[in-house]
Amino acid sequence: MAYRQVSSKSGGALSWFLQRVTGVVLLFVMIGHYLLMHYNIDSGHTYSAVLSRMQNPFYKGLQMTFVVVGIYHGINGTWSVVRDFKLKKSVSWTIYALLVISGVVFGLIGITTLMSF
Predict the structure, then answer these.
(1) In whole angstroms, what is the distance from residue 103 CA to residue 97 CA?
(2) 86, 112, 80, 113: which is closest to 99 by C-alpha?
(3) pLDDT tens-digit readout, 43-82
């Protein structure tokens, strides 16, 4: 098997960069989520407490960021692992399509749930 150099355009340099950026964003969002939702004893975990908290655009935006960036980060990371296996193109594209479809479906479920508050 001959060594073939892959250019950054086809080698996933943008995906690699966005994976790092979304990882940093998720770190801060996760810490914010934990401090605001779980660390603060007064925040409450009943349905009515969550309902009143989600009326605040800041909380809703935090959760929306968590859903959207988290799904992108997870799908991009999974695709990077799958891509490393050098599977047949048909298998790779099938897995890619399933990842994108599941990301869209779960993203819509998360966004719809958050917007219902």
Answers:
(1) 10
(2) 80
(3) 777 788 888 888 889 888 888 999 999 999 999 999 888 8
Output the pTM of the full model. 0.78
What CATH number labels 14-115?
1.20.1300.10
Q: How far apart are CA 56 and CA 37, in angstroms?
A: 13
Of the pLDDT bands very low, low, confident and very high (cuts 50, 70, 90), residue 9 is low
Q: Where are the domains of the chain?
A: 14-115
CA distances to 9, 78, 87 from 98, in Å: 24, 11, 15
Alpha-carbon distance 114 to 16, whole Å?
A: 29
Per the CB < 8 A criterion, the answer to whether 80 and 12 are in contact is: yes
